[in-house]
Amino acid sequence: MAKLFAKKSANTIRFADSEVALQDGESVLDGLLRAGHSVPYGCRGGSCQSCMMQCTGGTVPSASQQGLTAAQQELGYFLACSCHPSESMSVALKPAAEKIIAPVIDKSQLTANVVRLRIKAQLDYRAGQFINLFRNGAVSRSYSLASVIGVDDYIELHIKRVEGGKLSPWAYDDLCVGDEVAIEGPNGQCFYTPSDADQPLLLAGLGTGLAPLYGIVRDALVNHQHQGQIQLVVGGKHSEQLYLFDELKALSDSHPNLNVSFVAQQSTNAAVTEADIYQYCKELVPDGKGYKVFLCGAESFVKKMKKQCFLAGTNMADIAADAFVASGS
């Protein structure tokens, strides 16, 4: 392939026999896409890790390796979407992980704009992790796993339809039972670990942030017989955005140590408390010392709740989070 730029800059990216000079403020991912290269990507916010690449020459900015394992960092892997080098780099695609092709076995409506997909796939995962769902083998988005190994014989995703998105409208409108989809993963560190069966837990999420929390709480109770008090708080702007009322009631009825709260800024449902989720959680758990906390939902929510829990006494190492980064899904 001919060189795209004759003049090298301080941050020239060498990739696939070509050189791409990054523009001011441009990430490696954006520069390569602008130059016409085919590079996998998803959220473009550093969460899904779909754009992971490997540095074969030069220095990797440490910020682009946040969230990667020590082994991945040692091998020079980095996230292209958050890589803004100050010097030239030679990069290569990460060896492709094997995609799993599996059929959709159930599709049902959860709210006016959220569907539940159940996919018959053999996958080794932990409830609360996420997988990448592909459309046409190229476009991918990350979705958290609401299913539990040993309880469900499928993987379950909750997909919110985002107007103008590249993947969610297809999954919401067009994907049918019997269709085969490609998935990759799992990834993520937001899952239950049975280190202390008596430790109190706080799980808080907004909207489809309930998906990973539903998996995590069932994993803790059903697979690991967690004995400590569990507070699950699910929030939204309006009560119509909330779901799984019957399923969570049945779960709490069979496990006395589980307390489930639905809260919304506006509510027309008697089962939903009209309240601010931040204040509600603050009053529910005024002293977070000794708690294990799981936070799932919009990035702004996770960031604010993480700070609130830390200030309430929770050890930062005991706060696990799955932040949904806006990507125009």
UniProtKB/TrEMBL annotation:
CDD domains xrefs: fer2
UniProt KW keywords: Ubiquinone
Gene3D superfamilies: 3.10.20.30, Nucleotide-binding domain of ferredoxin-NADP reductase (FNR) module (3.40.50.80), Translation factors (2.40.30.10)
InterPro entries (UniProt xref): 2Fe-2S_ferredoxin-like_sf, 2Fe-2S_ferredoxin-type, Beta-grasp_dom_sf, Cbr1-like_FAD-bd_dom, FAD-bd_FR_type, Flavoprot_Pyr_Nucl_cyt_Rdtase, FNR_nucleotide-bd, MRET
GO MF, one example: oxidoreductase activity
Domain FAD-binding FR-type, residue spans: 97-193
Name the UniProt record assigns to this protein: Ferredoxin
